[in-house]
Amino acid sequence: MINKLCKKITNLDAPIVVGLDPMMDYIPAHVQEAAFAQYGETLEGAGEAIWQYNKAIIDATADLIPAVKPQIAMYEQFGIPGMIAFQKTVQYCKEKDLVVIGDIKRGDIGSTSKAYAVGHLGKVQVGSKQYYGFDEDFVTVNPYLGSDGVNPFLDVCREEKKGIFVLVKTSNPSSGEFQDQKVDGRPLYELVGEKVAQWGETCMGDQYSYVGCVVGATYPEMGKVLRKVMPKTFILVPGYGAQGGKAADLVPYFNKDGLGAIINSSRGIIAAYKQDKYSKFGAQNFADASRQAVLDMKADINGALGK
Fold first, then answer.
1. 294 lies in a domain?
2. Annotated active-site positions, please?
3. Structure pTM?
4. Helix (DSSP H) and strand (DSSP E) numbers for the chain
5. Strand partners, 278
6. Cα 287 versus chain centre, distance
7. Which pLDDT band holds residue 248 (cuts at 50, 70, 90)?
8. Which tens digits make up the pLDDT trace of 199-246?
């Protein structure tokens, strides 16, 4: 799957992933009203509104982007109907030939970690048959329980030719409380990066490993160091736009081949119509605003990369 991601990024000249992280206050009133007219102001109604909102954005942007990243918590908060919307979103994106990165940030041990890996990337056994659960192409993984929590994902990745993105240095302001702590004079995130590179050596695609990592756009100097520590690791970079990351900050995350990183934008794209820059589209044309935001993001990033 890492080979497919590299190929799609190259063909589209767009190292971009759209974060499908719907909140109810992002969803225009007319979409909510249509869903509530059918299901009432219920969890089912919320699930339907999320699904229709996502579908419109996917339809408007699928030809421009290589990948999407639905954040599972935004769906879980609506219970089973929300998870149905998550599953429908994943399936629809795959029908559009988009690479799906499930942002699930799971991290546990033993059979629990294996169950997460099987449920999101692999197949579960039911009697004599096997079924995919959610069937994402990649998922995000929290490594802070050590190899016990990561190895079950690696096993499924090898079997399914899928991948993971391991949290190394996250974009949130308090990440340094733990991730920046020194161990034998070196920051913890750097040691985690080295471990990611080791895990990745056991799961290689043509150029890059199935084992990617997450490094926030808000820490470009750290990104520069980690790029050297993990030369064959694809970096998923959150924090562009709404969280303060700028295109110029992203250059160190890429390798000389122009690959090696994929930049995420969530509300900057899916709620673009709420920004002054895109207000001319109006709520009725929210998906068109999202499309324009993708085009602007692509131009911004490629400009910084000198393309």
1. yes
2. 105
3. 0.95
4. 13, 12
5. none
6. 19
7. confident
8. 999 899 899 999 999 998 877 888 888 999 999 999 999 988 765 567
Give, in order, the Cα–Cα distances in Å from 232 to each of 77, 79, 205, 283.
36, 38, 10, 42
HEC string for 276-288? HHHHHHCHHHHHH
Cβ atoms of 8 and 210 within 8 Å: the answer is no
Percent of the chain predicted with pLDDT > 90? 83
Within a domain: 238: yes
Give residue-wise pLDDT tens across range 72-130: 999 999 999 999 999 999 999 999 999 999 999 998 988 999 999 999 999 999 999 99
**Cα–Cα distances in Å, from 39 out to 28, 76, 214?**
17, 18, 38
Q: What is the pLDDT of residue 121?
A: 97
- Residues contacting residue 7 through CB under 8 Å, at least 6 positions apart: none
One-letter amino acid for residue 4 of the chain: K
* Residue 191 forms part of a structural domain: yes
Q: How far apart are CA 141 and CA 264, in angstroms?
A: 16
Q: How many domains does the chain have?
A: 1
Domain that holds residue 145: 2-15+91-304
Tokens of 106: 């799971």
30: in domain? no
Rg (CA), the chain: 19
Q: Can you give the CATH number for the domain in which 217 is found?
A: 3.20.20.70
